[in-house]
Structure formats: structure tokens, C-alpha cells
Amino acid sequence: MKKLFVGLDVHKNSVVVAIAHAEGGEPEHYGKWGGSNLCTERGLNRLLKKFNLTKEEIKICYEAGPTGFVLARRLIQLHYDCIVVAPSEVPKKAGERKVRTDRRDASNLARQLRSGDLKPIHIPEAHDEAVRDLARARAAASEERAKCKQQLSMFLLRNGIHYEGKTTWTQAHMNYLRKLKLNDPSQNIVLEEYIMAVDAASERVARLEAHLEQQLQQWEAKPYVEALMAFRGFKTIAAMTIISELGDLSRFTHPRQLMGYLGIVPGEDSSGQKRRQGAITKSGNAHARWMLIESASHYNYEPKVSQNLSKRQSGQSREVKAISWRAQNRLCYRFRALRARNLNRNKVVVAVARELSAFIWELHQQVTKELHAKAT
Questions:
Q1: Among 71, 61, 55, which Cα is nearest to 118's?
Q2: Is 96's pLDDT higher than 70?
Q3: What residues does each domain of the chain span?
Q4: What are the C-alpha distances in Å from 82 to residues 56, 59, 63, 73, 188?
Q5: Which class would CATH give 4-115?
Q6: How many Å apart are CA 298 and CA 229, to the nearest integer?
């Protein structure tokens, strides 16, 4: 039986605390602690002594933010009942949206926690989050490389230089760029700096990809990654990104919940007899949504198990291969059927990505079943 509900407004250097008693009444401002985990631990110990309570009799929550999940993991490790909530999911009165203070935010959290209106978000395991950070670092490095290439291309275009080869950014293209000589020495310096920037960015991407490959061998989620690689459009980087971002999919009881989490369901504004659907909500995990949409674009082609895909499917169960083949047939048909209606290609890819997420959910269920069977 919970007797006290604690709302924390967590910042880098401070934690503002509000408490709400189970008997009712307005939440009270309790105080302000330091921003470290140790300060929060000591503050909670003092709070327990003041109200003569045990850890089982209080419940704690705070909003997800830049401080991450370190505090939540520590409190759970200390056997506190602690949840983390999404800021967008915390109900707020219309008048409170105009006036925001740390005290108000903490009090609102304590009140909503007591009333049961807060829905907790998933707290990833520490190692899963570490792999996710590595995958995000690789994505950031890839974006930086693309930016460097764009700057170099625009520099050459301004100076009237056009590459006559078929494909850019190959080894032949880079050799061509290194042999270029411009009229002005200053421009040669700029060219050399841009080439060095592209090389450095490419080396950074390669290093991070090598680290991802290495981490995969000792990651508990390796069976899920390898099973997802049996799907078209998923090699090591894409599969690790999706699995690290989504975590344990067993928390979703139906694929529609996963679709909503990814923000790839259409927004809706319906009333009475009118039903209006608009653009996708784009709520939830943006990194997973981006990678899923990138992978969904591969289903524009005829269903086929290529040599590379066959190699990735090696060692997978018959059920996993069957899900992969069924996904290919369904999504390729869906892609072409929507394109035949002259829909915008981007909309088609998002629609295919939405259905692809359902197959990923089914795949996770199958792999979990196989792992449990091996364990027993």
C-alpha cells in the first residue's frame, strides 16, 4: 500500500521535490536536492525517516529528459518503486501551460502519480542503451560525412568542375579528386581540406561500424539482431539500430502499439460523422522510425532471396525464414499496389514501414519462443 507519492523535477545540478499523501490534499513542496544520484539517495533516506516509511510505501516518478535513465536505474537497484514518464504524456491544465516553474512541475507529477494518470515509459538496460548510443554515434558520423561530401561537391560545382564517371564517391572518384589542380593556390588548399574532411569522416564511420560489429558478438540481443538480418533491407547496422532503439518488444501486446510508439500511424481529427486523417504523428522514437523507413524502401523490388540475403539467413530457423518470405511477398505487393494508385512515393514507403513493424513484432515473438524452448 503506497502512502506517499514523490514527484521529482530533475535537472543537471538540482532536483526539486514535491510529495503527495495517499489520503489526499494538495501536493506539498518538500525541498531541493543536489543533482547527483548520491544527493537523491540521501534525500530519500531523510524523507523516509521523517515520515517513518519504508521503501515499499513510497512511489517516485520524474520526467524523461537530458539526464537520461541513470537515476531511475539507481533507485530501482535500491528497491524503490520508480517510474519515468514522457513529458508529452503528463496531463496539464490549460492555465498551467502559461506558467511553468520547477515547483509546479514537481507538484503536478506527484498529483498525477497519486491519481494513476501517468503512464511509465520503458527504461532500457544499461548495456542496451550503450549499444544504442554507439549506433546513434555512427548515424551522426554518417550525417557528418554526407555534409562534408555535399560541401565538396558544391565547391567543385561553383568552379565548373564535373566528374564524368558513372558513380561518385568510389575509389576512382576519390583518386580523380586528389589529382585535380585548380587555377588559384587558395582554391587548391580548400580542395585539399575538403578531401581530408571526407576522408576523416569516412574513417570515423568505418571505426564505429567496426565497434558495432564487435559489440554484437557479446550482446544479449544478438539472436534478435541476427533474426532481423534475415529480412530484406536489414544488414548489421540497420538491425542493431532497430533492436537497440526498440528494446524488448514483449511490452507491446499488439503490433498497433508498436506502430503508435514509432509514430507511423496517421494523425486523426474526427468528430461526429466526419473522419479526417492527416500526416503521421511522428511521436515516439525518431531514430527507430528513420531506420525503419530506410529499410522499407527496399521492398520496391520483386520478392527474391538474393545471395547476400541467403547468407544472412544461414542458421536461422524455418519459422524465421518463413516470416521473412511472407514479409517480402506482402510488402512488395503492398508497395506496388499503392504506387499504382499514384500515391506519393514517400507516403508509400511510410505505409510499407508501418506494416514492416508488424512483421518485426511477430519476428520478436518467434525468436523469444525459440530462446525459451532452448532454455528449457
A1: 61
A2: no
A3: 4-115, 126-216, 222-375
A4: 11, 6, 11, 9, 59
A5: alpha beta
A6: 13
User: Within the chain, what is the greatest distance between any pair of CA atoms?
Assistant: 82
Residue type, 75: L
Paired strand residues for 280:
266
User: How far is Cα 3 from Cα 57, in angstroms, rounded to an integer?
Assistant: 5
Give me the sign of the Cα torsion angle 132, 135, 140, 141: positive
Q: Tens of pLDDT along 281-332?
A: 898 889 999 999 999 999 999 999 999 999 999 999 999 999 999 999 999 9
For 11-43, the three-class secondary structure string (H helix, E strand, C coil) is CCCEEEEEEEECCCCCCEEEEEEECCHHHHHHH
237, 290 Cβ separation under 8 angstroms: no
Please give the pLDDT value at position 92.
80
Mean pLDDT, residues 339-355: 95
Its sign, for the CA torsion 211, 291, 248, 375, is negative
> What's the Cα-to-Cα distance from 40 to each of 24, 55, 68, 107, 157, rounded to whole Å?
25, 14, 15, 17, 57
Say if residues 293 and 350 touch (Cβ distance below 8 Å): yes
Whether residue 31 contacts residue 43, with contact meaning beta carbons closer than 8 Å, is answered with yes
What pTM, to 2 d.p., does this model score? 0.90
